[in-house]
Structures are given as C-alpha cells and as structure tokens.
C-alpha cells in the first residue's frame, strides 16, 4: 500500500527488529560474564569482558577448529555441487525441448515436498556398506542435489534467457553444451549465487543427519555445539560463548550477502 | 506454483541418451553428413544428459532411502547386527504400543500448532508493515532476516538459557510484572511454548519476506478503488491483500508443515537432562526424536524405520488437511 507510513509503522518495525537481535545479544552478554555471574540470572546489560577467556575454554572443550573446518568443507562442496547439477538440469527444463519434459518436471516439483530427512536409516546403512561411515563425505552425499534447486533455476532461466538467443547460437552451429556455457551460464549467475548461499546455509545449520553420521571426534560445528551443551549445560558462560563464536561465520555471511538473501527469498516466493 | 507444464507422452526410445547416432534414425539410405548427424543427436539427446545427473543422484540419495526405509521397517534390524528376520508389521505394532509414540506425536503436533499459527499471523502483519514506502527499505528487510542465519542448534541453546526455570530472563521479566516463575522445562505446555518461540523467532521474518513479495504483486488499483469505496486500511488488508496472496499462503503453510512436524534440534538441545529424550517425562519429546531414540540409542533400526514411516504418513495427512482448510478459508475471503 503506497502511502507514507507514520510513526506507528516504524515503531512496530523497530520493536520487531529489536526482538530479532535481542537473543543474539543475550548470548554474547552471558558469554562475556564469569561462570558465577552467568549462573545468577540477568547480568548487567553491558558485556563483562570475559568473552575471550570463555571462548578459549569452549574451544578447548570441543574439537572446535576441526568442526569449523568440516562445516566449511561440507557446506562449500555441497553448495557448489547443487549449483552445478541444478543449473544444468534447470536449464534443460527451462529451455530445451525433449520428450518427457513435462512429466519429469512434475516429478521434480512433487519431490520438493518429500521429507527426505526421513530416509536417515537407509542412508546410515548405505554409508556403512560403502565404508564411508563417519567421514565428512557421508555428510555431503544427501545434499549433492536438491529438487528445490532444479525448480528454482528452471523458474529463473525461463525468463532470463531469450529463446531467440539460443536459436541464433544454434544457427551458428554451436553445440548444446556451448550454448549452455556461453548463453545460459552467464545469464544464470545471479540465481546461481542465491542458490549457492541458501544451500550453504542449509547445510551449515543442518543437525539431524550429521549427528547420526559423524563420530564425536569428527563433528560439524552444530554437532560440536551439541557436545558442548550436553557436557557443560550448568555453565552458561562457556556454552553461550561457544554458541556466539559458532554463529559468527554465518553473521559475516549475512553482512556480506544479506541483500542477496532477501532478494532470493522474495524472488522464490513470486515465481514459486 | 503456477507453472504451465507441457505434458507430452514419454517415448521409451527417446528416453535413452546413451546411444547417440545409433538410434533408428541413423539407418537411412543416404545418410546426411557425419557432422550434421552428430549435431542432430547432440540436440536431441543432450537434454537427457543434463537432467540425468540430477535424477540419478536424487534417486540414490532421496527416493531410494525412503523406499528402503519401508523394507527395513518390516524386518528385525539391529544397528550393529544388521538385518534379521522378516517380521511383517510387528515393528509398527511395537511402536504404536509404546507409551511414547502417542505422547510424542501429541507433543509434535502441539509444538507445530503453537509455532505455526502465530507465526503466520505475525508474518502477515509484518509484511503489511513492510509493504509501505519505508525509508531504508533494504535495511529493514535485512534486519528481520537476522534470526534466519542462526542455526536451530544455536537458537535452542540461547533460548534454553532465556527460558531458564530459575534465573532465565523470561522468568525474571515475568517476576517484574508480578507473575511467578514458570517451569519452562518441566511443565508440558510451557515447554511447548518455549520451543515454539524458537521456531517463531527464526522463521517469522523469513515468511514475512515471502508474503511481502506476494503483496507487492497485488495490483495497486484494487486498493485505490477500495479506498474510494470507503474501505479503511484494515479492511483493505483483510478483504484484498489476504485473499490475493492466498497461493503464497498455501505454499508457506505446506512447507512449514513439512518442516515443522520433523522438528528435532530445538527440543533436543532444549533438554538439560542427561537422557536427552525431551525432558524427564518426555514432555517435549517429538517424533523425530523418537526415530533417533529407537535407532541410535536403543539400536533398533527396524522400529526407527517404522516410526519414520508413521511420521511420513502424519505429514501427508497434515499437508492435505492444510490444503483443504486454506482453500476453504481463502475462498470465503474471496467471495466478499
């Protein structure tokens, strides 16, 4: 509704943003107190200056750097894999004519709603059979492609690449793969960046499968936080310092790419 | 999802991408130039090559495990010993007879309802607020998305402290206004509210952005003519905006149903007992936690699989019920 908003609208929005930020500040606040102060309930509203010490204790209690490295590796590899395979398939669905395209696309859309997380038991058995149990690769495997990715890229490429351009390239004798590489890939870049970001975040924050797939000494960051919480739940300064620390990488990503995340969510909504 | 799909019958011959140049069309009395033929095969078959990796991988890591879960669920299958005898529906019977299944199903649904209903309503209002000519639009939109980058595990740890039974911030704030401490971890309903608030905190802004995008696609003339007819802003919101964004609401409700009923990290990390099954009396244990409990604590993959399949059925039922419900509510709004 296109009217100049008044004080009330800004006030309500500000209150909401405050609520969005408050739990994170609380986490940092308790994480910066001594164990004794944090155990006493609401601390002074300014940080207590013990954050680094608590963070150090947290890093000594869990394999922090290993977990961080694992999370970075798993998220990066899967994000790249999803972008690659889903751009390829999305392009075929958007721009190439082939028999069975319609039914296959219906299949992709339908499987977006299937809760694949419920397949953990066979995945676990499969990893054991293949001898990959406990490796970071076993965490990546279920994420290498997503139905959402194919659908998202298809929706974007339908409008982003003019059919005439593809026709012209074909007339010039370009092979399919060259048309894809020279026409579709450059046009797909904005959507690919968004898909990359979302996949990265999804895999980074995933907990259920890595908890099952990984042993305690080779965790992702979420599994390591779980260890920290179960081992030291009486010591909130330690646990929350670790939690704050583990959240920083995604906060950096948010600052750098928050704009893309917003536009990605909004694009996905209109086109979905 | 308003995609127009061209439905054409699939032809088995055409489906095989593996033999370019050797198809039935390759045999002709006067074959065209070698290059032309290759180019035609390229155009005909490479689409299959492009979609094949997705389908092959997806079948292996997405569909096969779901089907195989059913196979495991009708066998004795231990985590360490592997496959045992075929037992029919025995695992299902044991799961359904277990005192925890019904309780944790009720918990799951309760947490889901307490989280999704307020979440959708607040997200609608928030999107309505953002659908104004705001100063610093992008900054507002980014700010409400902040919780989305915090992982459910971290959210659960932070909220576990906020909702501490003795010294948590929430209870201290309640004390200020004269309300006694609430036992957030031990009272069943209170624990559901605490866990639902984690879900709401993380997802409301995200859903508001989806609604906002849909709202911006509503033709502005509708509002103008409604304003001429004397409809106030609230009336416009209820009678125009909400019915117009119905497809988006269906999308959000269905996806949050599928995700919400599988909730795992939040209740597990909220638990501060050593068993970590969702409280001392499983007052906030969920179905996915039961899958984990059967499979990796009791080491019985058969019962874990049966539980996973039961959850899958519950999700299907809820998705259909939601769809019918939202359609009906939406069409009532549209008839006004």
UniProtKB/TrEMBL annotation, chain A:
The protein's name: Cellobiose transport system permease protein
PROSITE patterns: ABC_TM1
Gene Ontology CC annotations of this record: plasma membrane
GO terms (BP aspect): transmembrane transport
Family indicated by similarity: Belongs to the binding-protein-dependent transport system permease family.
Main localization (coarse): membrane
Keywords: Cell membrane, Membrane, Transmembrane, Transmembrane helix, Transport
Organism ancestry: Bacteria, Bacillati, Actinomycetota, Actinomycetes, Propionibacteriales
Membrane topology summary: Multi-pass membrane protein
CDD domains documented for this protein: TM_PBP2
Domain ABC transmembrane type-1: 68-257
Annotated TM spans: 72-93, 105-128, 140-158, 179-201, 236-257
Signal peptide positions (record): none
Localisation: Cell membrane
UniProtKB/TrEMBL annotation, chain B:
Bilayer topology term: Multi-pass membrane protein
Gene Ontology BP, a term: transmembrane transport
UniProt entry tagged with the keyword Cell membrane: yes
Locations listed in the record: Cell membrane
Record bears the keyword DNA damage: no
Boundaries of every ABC transmembrane type-1 domain copy: 105-322
Region (Disordered): 1-31
Domain of life: Bacteria
Classification via SUPFAM superfamilies: MetI-like
Classification via CDD domains: TM_PBP2
Pfam family, one: BPD_transp_1
Cellular component terms per the entry's GO annotation: plasma membrane
InterPro entries noted in UniProt: ABC_transporter_permease (IPR051393), MetI-like (IPR000515), MetI-like_sf (IPR035906)
Membrane-spanning parts: 48-71, 109-130, 142-163, 203-223, 244-265, 306-326
Gene3D superfamilies per the UniProt record, alphabetical: MetI-like
Annotated family: Belongs to the binding-protein-dependent transport system permease family.
Name the UniProt record assigns to this protein: Cellobiose transport system permease protein
Species assigned in the record: Nocardioides cavernae
């Amino acid at each position: 509704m296109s009217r100049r908003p008044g004080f009330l609208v800004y006030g309500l929005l500000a209150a909401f943003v405050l609520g969005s930020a408050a739990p994170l500040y609380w986490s940092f606040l308790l994480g910066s107190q001594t164990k004794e102060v944090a155990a006493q309930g609401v601390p002074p509203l300014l940080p207590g200056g013990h954050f680094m010490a608590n963070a150090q204790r947290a890093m000594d209690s869990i394999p922090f750097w290993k977990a961080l490295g694992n999370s970075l590796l798993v998220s990066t590899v899967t994000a790249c894999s999803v972008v690659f395979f889903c751009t390829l398939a999305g392009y075929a669905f958007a721009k190439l004519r082939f028999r069975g395209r319609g039914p296959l696309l219906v299949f992709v859309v339908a499987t977006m709603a299937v809760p694949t997380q419920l397949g953990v038991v066979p995945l676990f058995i499969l990893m054991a059979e293949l001898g990959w149990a406990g490796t970071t690769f076993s965490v990546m495997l279920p994420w290498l492609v997503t139905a959402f990715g194919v659908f998202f890229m298809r929706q974007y490429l339908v409008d982003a690449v003019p059919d005439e351009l593809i026709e012209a390239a074909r007339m010039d004798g370009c092979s399919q793969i060259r048309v894809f590489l020279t026409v579709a890939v450059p046009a797909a870049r904005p959507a690919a960046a968004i898909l990359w970001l979302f996949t990265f975040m999804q895999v980074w924050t995933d907990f259920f499968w890595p908890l099952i797939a990984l042993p305690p000494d080779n965790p992702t960051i979420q599994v390591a936080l779980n260890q920290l919480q179960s081992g030291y739940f009486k010591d909130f300064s330690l646990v929350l310092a670790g939690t704050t620390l583990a959240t920083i990488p995604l906060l950096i990503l948010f600052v750098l790419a928050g704009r893309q995340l917003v536009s990605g969510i909004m694009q996905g909504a209109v086109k979905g | 999802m308003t995609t127009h799909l061209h439905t054409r019958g699939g032809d088995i011959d055409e489906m095989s991408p593996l033999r370019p140049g050797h198809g039935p069309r390759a045999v002709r009395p006067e074959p065209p130039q070698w290059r032309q033929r290759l180019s035609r095969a390229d155009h005909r078959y490479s689409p299959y090559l492009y979609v094949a990796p997705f389908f092959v991988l997806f079948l292996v890591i997405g569909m096969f495990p779901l089907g195989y879960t059913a196979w495991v669920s009708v066998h004795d299958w231990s985590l360490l010993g592997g496959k045992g005898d075929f037992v029919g529906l025995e695992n299902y019977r044991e799961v359904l007879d277990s005192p925890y299944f019904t309780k944790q199903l009720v918990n799951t649904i309760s947490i889901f309802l307490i989280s999704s209903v307020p979440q959708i309503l607040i997200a609608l209002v928030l999107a309505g607020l953002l659908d104004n000519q705001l100063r610093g639009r992008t900054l507002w939109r980014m700010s409400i998305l902040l919780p989305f980058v915090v992982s459910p595990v971290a959210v659960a740890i932070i909220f576990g402290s906020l909702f501490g039974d003795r010294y948590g911030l929430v209870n201290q704030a309640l004390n200020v206004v004269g309300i006694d401490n609430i036992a957030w971890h031990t009272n069943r309903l209170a624990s559901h509210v605490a866990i639902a608030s984690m879900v709401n905190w993380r997802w409301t802004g995200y859903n508001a952005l989806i609604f906002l995008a849909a709202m911006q696609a509503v033709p502005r003339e509708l509002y103008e003519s409604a304003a001429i007819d004397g409809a106030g802003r609230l009336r416009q919101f209820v009678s125009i905006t909400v019915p117009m964004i119905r497809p988006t609401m269906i999308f959000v409700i269905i996806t949050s149903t599928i995700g919400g009923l599988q909730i795992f990290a939040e209740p597990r990390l909220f638990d501060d007992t050593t068993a970590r099954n969702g409280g001392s009396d499983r007052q906030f244990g969920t179905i996915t936690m039961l899958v984990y409990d059967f499979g990796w604590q009791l080491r019985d993959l058969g019962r874990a699989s049966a539980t996973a399949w039961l959850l899958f059925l519950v999700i299907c039922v809820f998705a259909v019920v939601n769809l019918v419900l939202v359609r009906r509510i939406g069409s009532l709004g549209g008839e006004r």
